[in-house]
């Protein structure tokens, strides 16, 4: 340690005393932690304004500069104790190296917090989050996040910029791939699961990493689906749709949030006091810290609310952004702003406290280094590969499975001698299977569909013909004849089409959401051979595949499945497991329908009133809709097939009436149930969904809202009663007075297999 000055020695002793005050307690936001708080206060009391501002500075190791900075500046900042966090450092030797600089070189020895976009796995890459969400399996999501935490923490990366909990209703928006789809209830459940998985029972566990719920807030509502674009969201919709997954993450104890790029109702999200301070910190009692998105503080100048860097820094810190990612405006300007009285010292101290609290909670002061940098070999770990395969299997959504020759086309028969043609540019595209944000994932870790099918063919004596057909986004048809011949020579065709991994994710909005390049033409030619076709679709967003839905007997939505893509697909295609995924986004028929989402309002001129009530016999012409397309999606939210079938009894409710007053007091709950039976010949897991609609309320409520779900595994012929319960949380909404309450009115309840089906039961909500 560099303790050349006597002040340094005294401080070193003080810190040692703080550090030895016992086991680092769990980080429990909302409840505080006296032990951590006293350590934070002791340290804060020693810090200069410059050191405080430095703790709020985060730079990317890859670029090691904010605009206008030289590479060596970052090193200087570290040694001078003026850099709180680094992102994009991925190996233990690097994290340990930087940590050594600050622990041995800086005055106060405050460890660096290393952050990274560990989005769906660190080295073991799981399905993209949109695919994972299709499992509707919170426990699975938690396990994948846990694994990601174990792998990234092994390299000293103790903070991930995940989960992305932005609600997405627009398939043009590329980042729809990173979230849990369009529904706030499901999104909230999965947000909690990610936080539990990353953070574990205690952040103090060396294998726990701090989570970051992002992007606060409304980022997914970008106008036109165009990345980074403006959003206009009413406060009611903000509170009812976009904020709940963030609230859920905060309630689960998420350590950090990220402020978004977009402007929201005219205010850039990284300088928005309403969302960052009033809602997040004051109403919700969030005690972690807010990091800006990449250069988003600097970007408030481009949004037009600051003319210079100092003003951008002032507006962001006053609004509630605690850490500056890559804008390099906090570290240079905050000390002067505080000295000039433009930023209260108390606000600066609050931001620093929040950052230090997370560092203490992670145990970084006690264990700043990765103890055994050589220990981890995450790639080949059989348990994580098994988890990756299970996650992929659960993420697949079977959209079509028509009968061919008297039986559903899937699962395929593995009879020896059966001839299978594997066609398409995604059949053997290892890198694409990783999807966007693949962190330390490697194409070499992926088993492709082709590799897995070849192995299966060898094992079972199948005859496999392979043709690429075309490129993902090409126009060259030279490969078509070979593909058509392979199809003609086969008994069944498996056609692997879709997007490449870079067609979704950040800055990858699409104005067209059909199959890229000439893949649709390849599809048509292969289908025209008359051979049965299984279309395996890879993509990071829902694709508008109207033609395929009418002409292809089996369609499996595979998303980007991760390292175990091939084995999971082959097991699913041959029925070793069943596809169990359900859509978490509506799949549009045409681009003109977006934004499209199931939990919409009804309009005064609906085409079909969803519950056959209250429609004023609308004129058949002057009704909501398009003259050239239906209103409904091609595949609705919650839908998906399996290899068996289920029946539902009528929905039952525990009472005909329930009191709003009792609900609001938390004293009443409504029991809801239905019997679900497996009516097919195979075991299967059904995702049983609970929907509500409220009528007679002070503001219009959506035609349906998801308020519960359960995954139920049933043997053939088995039936089970599935119970739900509705209380204040499920039945309240932001009413005409902007109060979150249950109101008198009518409640309709469905226990159903998706958002369009089921029989409703009616309950009166009395005063
Ligand atoms: C993205 C964030 C990400 C950050 C750091 C930004 O461009 O919007 O989601 O966490 O970069 O890589």
Given helix and strand content, the structural type is alpha/beta
End-to-end distance: 69 Å
Supply the CATH class of the largest domain: Alpha Beta
Number of strands: 29
Q: How many helices?
A: 23
pLDDT < 50 runs, ≥5 residues: 1-26, 611-615
Radius of gyration: 27 Å
CATH superfamily of the largest domain: Glycoside hydrolase, family 3, N-terminal domain
Report the CATH topology name of the largest domain: TIM Barrel
Overall pLDDT, averaged?
Answer: 93
Oligomer class = single chain
Looking at the overall shape, the CATH architecture of the largest domain is Alpha-Beta Barrel
Top keywords for this entry?
767 residues; alpha/beta; TIM Barrel; Rossmann fold; 3 domains; five-stranded parallel sheet; 23 helices; binds beta-D-glucopyranose
Descriptive overview:
- This protein has 767 residues and is an alpha/beta fold.
- The protein folds into three domains: 353 residues, Glycoside hydrolase, family 3, N-terminal domain (TIM Barrel, Alpha-Beta Barrel), CATH 3.20.20; 178 residues, 3-Layer(aba) Sandwich (Rossmann fold); 123 residues, Immunoglobulins (Immunoglobulin-like).
- 30% of the residues lie in helices and 17% in strands.
- It has 23 helices and 29 strands.
- The strands form eight sheets. Strands 11-18-17-16-14-15 form a six-stranded mixed sheet, with helices on both faces.
- Helix 7 packs parallel to helix 8 and helix 16 packs across helix 21.
- It is globular, with a radius of gyration of 27 Å.
- It starts with 5 loop residues before the first helix and ends with a strand.
- Bound molecules: beta-D-glucopyranose.
- Beta-D-glucopyranose binds next to loops.
């Amino acid at each position: 340690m560099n303790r050349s000055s006597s002040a340094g020695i005294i401080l070193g002793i003080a810190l040692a005393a703080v550090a030895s005050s016992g086991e680092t307690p769990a980080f429990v936001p909302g409840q505080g932690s006296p032990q951590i708080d006293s350590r934070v206060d002791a340290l804060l009391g020693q810090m200069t304004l410059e050191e405080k501002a430095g703790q709020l500075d985060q730079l990317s190791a890859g670029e090691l500069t904010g605009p206008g900075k030289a590479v060596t500046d970052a090193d200087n900042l570290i040694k001078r104790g003026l850099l709180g966090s680094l992102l994009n450092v991925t190996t233990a030797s690097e994290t340990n190296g930087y940590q050594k600089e600050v622990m041995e070189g800086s005055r106060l020895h405050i460890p660096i917090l290393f952050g990274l976009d560990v989005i769906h796995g660190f080295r073991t890459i799981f399905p993209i989050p949109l695919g994972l969400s299709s499992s509707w399996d919170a426990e699975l999501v938690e396990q994948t996040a846990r694994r990601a935490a174990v792998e990234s923490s092994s390299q000293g990366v103790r903070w991930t910029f995940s989960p992305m909990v932005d609600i997405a209703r627009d398939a043009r928006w590329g980042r729809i791939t990173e979230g849990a789809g369009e529904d706030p209830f499901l999104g909230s459940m999965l947000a909690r699961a990610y936080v539990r998985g990353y953070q574990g029972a205690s952040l103090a566990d060396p294998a726990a990493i701090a989570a970051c719920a992002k992007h606060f807030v409304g980022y997914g509502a970008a106008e036109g689906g165009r990345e980074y674009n403006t959003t206009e969201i009413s406060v009611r919709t903000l509170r009812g749709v976009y904020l709940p997954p963030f609230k859920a993450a905060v309630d689960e104890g998420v350590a950090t949030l990220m402020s978004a790029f977009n402007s929201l109702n005219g205010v850039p999200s990284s300088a928005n006091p309403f969302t960052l301070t009033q809602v997040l910190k004051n109403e919700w009692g969030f005690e972690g810290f807010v990091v800006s998105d990449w250069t988003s503080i600097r970007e408030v100048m481009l949004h037009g609310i600051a003319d210079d860097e100092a003003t951008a820094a002032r507006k962001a810190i006053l609004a509630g952004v605690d850490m500056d990612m890559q804008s390099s405006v906090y570290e240079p300007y905050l000390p002067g702003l505080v000295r000039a009285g433009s930023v209260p010292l108390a606000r600066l101290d609050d931001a620093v406290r929040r950052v230090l609290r997370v560092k203490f909670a992670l145990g970084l002061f006690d264990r700043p280094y990765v103890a055994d940098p050589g220990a981890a070999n995450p790639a080949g770990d059989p348990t994580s590969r098994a988890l990756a395969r299970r996650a992929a299997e659960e993420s697949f959504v079977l959209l079509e499975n028509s009968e061919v020759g008297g039986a559903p086309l899937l699962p395929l028969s593995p009879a020896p001698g059966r001839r299978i043609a594997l066609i398409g540019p995604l059949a053997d595209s290892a890198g694409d299977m990783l999807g966007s944000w693949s962190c330390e994932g490697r194409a070499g870790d992926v088993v492709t569909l082709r590799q897995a099918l070849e192995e299966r063919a060898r094992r079972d004596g199948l005859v496999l013909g392979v043709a690429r057909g075309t490129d993902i986004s090409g126009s060259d048809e030279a490969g078509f004849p070979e593909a058509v011949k392979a199809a003609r020579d086969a008994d069944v065709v498996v056609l692997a089409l879709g997007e490449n991994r870079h067609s979704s994710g950040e800055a990858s909005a699409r104005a067209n959401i059909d199959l890229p390049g000439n893949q649709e033409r390849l599809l048509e030619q292969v289908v025209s051979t008359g051979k049965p076709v299984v279309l395996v679709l890879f993509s990071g967003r829902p694709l508008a595949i109207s033609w395929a839905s009418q002409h292809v007997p089996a369609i499996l939505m595979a998303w980007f499945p991760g390292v175990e893509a091939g084995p999971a697909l082959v097991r699913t295609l041959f029925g070793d497991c069943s596809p169990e995924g359900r859509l978490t986004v509506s799949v549009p028929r045409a681009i003109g329908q977006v934004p499209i989402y199931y939990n919409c309002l009804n309009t005064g001129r609906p085409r079909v009133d969803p519950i056959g009530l209250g429609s004023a016999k609308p004129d058949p012409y002057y009704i909501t809709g398009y003259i050239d397309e239906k209103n409904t999606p091609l595949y609705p939210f919650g839908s998906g097939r399996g290899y068996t079938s289920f029946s539902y009894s009528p929905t039952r409710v525990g009472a005909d009436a329930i009191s709003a007053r009792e609900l609001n007091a938390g004293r009443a709950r409504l029991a809801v149930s239905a019997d679900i039976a497996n009516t097919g010949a195979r075991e299967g897991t059904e995702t049983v969904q609970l929907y509500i609609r409220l009528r007679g309320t002070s503001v219009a409520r959506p035609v349906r809202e998801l308020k519960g779900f359960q995954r139920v595994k049933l043997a053939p012929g088995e039936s089970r009663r599935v119970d739900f319960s509705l209380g204040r949380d499920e039945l309240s909404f932001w009413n005409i007075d902007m109060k979150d309450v249950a109101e008198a009115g009518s409640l309709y309840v469905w226990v159903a297999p998706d958002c369009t089906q089921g029989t409703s039961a009616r309950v009166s909500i009395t005063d």
